[in-house]
Amino acid sequence: MSVDNLFTIDFTSIAPLNFKACLIAVLCGLIIGFERQWSGKPAGIRTSILICLSAYAFVALGQYVMPGEGSARVVGQIVTGVGFLGAGVIIAKEGLVLGVTSAAVIWVLAAIGSLIGLNCYSSALILTLITIFVLVGITLLEKLVLKLKRGVHKDYEKKEKEME
Q1: What residues contact residue 91 under an 8 Å CB cut-off, 6+ apart?
Q2: Other beta carbons within 10 Å of 142
Q3: Among residues 70, 108, 54, 116, which one has the least CA distance to residue 86?
Q4: What is the pLDDT of residues 32-86, one digit of tens each?
Q5: Is 141 exposed, middle or buried (0-12, 13-18, 19+ CB in 10 A)?
Q6: 49: containing domain
Q7: Which of 6, 12, 54, 125 has its CA 20 to 30 A from that of 134?
Q8: How many folded domains does the chain comprise?
Q9: What is the model's pTM?
């Protein structure tokens, strides 16, 4: 081995990470983060991408350093660490508790990143879509149920009062 080879750096390698997994982590975080930001909730696009990407990086690093059991340990530590991060977005004020869904989303983002770190790309993408369905679909369903409870006649009563 020559001295020249000792000082060469391969800038195309990001081992133990890989570009495909990084892009998938960014995409999953972006999709969920966009919904959160659009809804005006905490943990928007940047935060979501960073949580997903960092969970992926930690799991990939765990597999690299300790193949086999390393991933399980790292995932356990991610769950603990993300729990603290989620607790930071929960606000209890005057008997109301706010931010629980955002905390749950942070946990899901870490799970998605961990799946990517375990090379379970399809599972990560499916979990991303399920998360979006829950966040958007359930909100629409709740609005529909409230409208049904309110009744259609109340909408007409409002219009009649406006016309008077």
Answers
A1: 97, 98, 99
A2: 10
A3: 108
A4: 999 999 999 988 999 999 999 999 999 999 888 888 777 778 888 888 889 888 8
A5: exposed
A6: 3-163
A7: 54
A8: 1
A9: 0.80
